[in-house]
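Section 5: illustrative case.
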C-alpha cells in the first residue's frame, strides 16, 4: 500500500499538540534552537521526555552532540516566537532575553513551562532522530499554553464539569439568562457603565458617540444610511441630531441633498473619538485581563462572525 505523505500529514494534524522551542549550545559555544511539536513525556521515575529532530535540520549536529538541551512549552501569546524559531537563515535569538542553564544551554522567558534535560538516549526514527532526555530541572509558570492543530495555532479551553443534578434541572427555566443574546447584552451594558462618566465630562451623549463612530468607520453616503447604521446599536437619530453635531464642530457635511451627503469628522470630532477610544480600551483590557492573548483573539473572531451572520440585508460587507 502506498501512503500519500500529504494526506498522512493532514491526518496526523488532527492530533492537537503543544508547541515547544528546544535549545542547546554547540561545541563552539554557538546557541541553537528550533520549534518542535513532537515533544512528549516518557517517564516520571526517572523523569524523562523525548522529542524528534528532523535529519535535515540545520542544527542537527548541535543537538546530537550536546550533553544538555532545554525545552520550552510556549505560552498562548508566543506564536510569533514559535514562527521566529521555525524560520531558517535568521538569528533566532535576536531580541530575546536569555538565561543560562545546565551546560550553558540558553533558556527563554515568558513560556508556560520550561525543562532542562540531560541527553541519555539517541535513536533512529526514519527521517528523524529521536532524542530522550532526563529532566534535571524544571519550572512551571502556570500560563496558558499555545496549541497546534491542522497546521494552525490554536488555544485550548477547559471543558466545564458536568452540572450537578440539583443545578441542571432548571436550565430551561433559566434559558434566557444563559442565552447568547442575554450574555452579550449584559456584558455590553456593564462595560458601557464605565465609559458613561467620560461622555458626561466631554459633554456628549451616547447617541452622539454612535454617530461619530459610524461616520469614522463606515463613511455613510446619505442621512438615510447614517440613520440605518446607528439603528444597529438600538439608537434612533433624525436630521436634527446630525445638524447639532455640525453646530458643535464635531463633523461637517458636503452636499446639498440629504440623500447624497458626505460626512467627515473635524479635528475636534477625531480628538473626542480618540479620547473615548482610549477609555474603552482601558475598560476592555480590565475586563479581559484574566484571558490569555489567544483566548481574546478567538473571542473577537467569534464576535466578528456573529456580526457578519446577522448583518441586515441592506448593509454592505465590512
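Designed sequence:
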Amino acid at each position: 500500500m502506498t501512503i500519500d505523505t500529504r494526506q498522512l500529514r493532514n491526518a496526523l494534524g488532527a492530533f492537537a499538540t503543544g508547541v515547544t522551542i528546544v535549545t542547546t549550545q554547540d561545541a563552539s559555544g554557538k546557541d541553537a534552537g528550533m520549534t518542535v511539536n513532537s515533544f512528549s513525556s516518557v517517564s516520571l521515575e526517572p523523569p524523562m521526555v523525548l522529542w524528534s529532530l528532523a535529519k535535515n535540520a540545520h542544527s542537527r549536529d548541535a543537538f546530537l552532540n550536546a550533553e544538555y538541551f532545554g525545552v520550552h512549552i510556549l505560552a498562548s501569546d508566543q506564536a510569533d516566537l514559535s514562527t521566529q524559531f521555525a524560520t531558517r537563515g535568521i538569528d533566532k535569538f535576536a531580541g530575546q532575553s536569555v538565561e543560562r542553564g545546565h551546560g550553558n544551554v540558553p533558556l527563554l522567558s515568558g513560556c508556560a513551562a520550561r525543562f532542562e534535560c540531560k541527553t541519555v538516549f539517541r535513536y533512529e526514527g526514519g527521517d528523524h532522530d529521536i532524542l530522550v532526555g532526563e529532566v534535571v530541572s524544571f519550572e512551571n509558570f502556570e500560563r496558558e499554553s499555545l496549541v497546534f492543530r491542522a497546521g494552525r495555532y490554536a488555544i485550548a479551553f477547559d471543558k466545564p464539569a458536568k452540572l450537578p443534578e440539583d443545578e441542571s434541572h432548571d436550565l430551561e427555566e433559566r434559558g434566557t439568562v444563559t442565552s447568547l443574546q442575554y450574555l452579550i447584552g449584559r456584558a455590553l451594558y456593564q462595560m458601557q457603565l464605565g465609559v458613561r462618566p467620560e461622555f458626561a465630562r466631554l459633554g456628549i451623549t451616547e447617541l452622539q458617540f454612535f454617530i461619530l463612530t459610524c461616520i469614522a468607520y463606515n463613511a455613510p453616503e446619505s442621512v438615510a444610511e447614517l440613520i440605518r447604521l446607528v439603528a444597529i446599536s438600538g439608537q434612533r437619530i433624525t436630521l436634527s441630531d446630525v445638524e447639532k453635531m455640525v453646530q458643535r464642530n464635531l463633523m461637517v457635511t458636503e452636499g446639498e441633498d440629504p440623500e447624497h451627503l458626505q460626512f467627515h469628522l473635524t479635528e475636534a470630532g477625531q480628538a473626542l473619538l480618540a479620547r473615548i477610544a482610549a477609555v474603552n480600551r482601558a475598560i476592555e483590557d480590565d475586563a479581559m485581563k484574566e484571558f490569555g492573548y489567544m483566548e481574546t483573539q478567538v473571542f473577537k473572531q467569534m464576535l466578528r462572525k456573529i456580526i457578519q451572520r446577522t448583518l441586515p440585508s441592506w448593509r454592505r460587507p465590512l
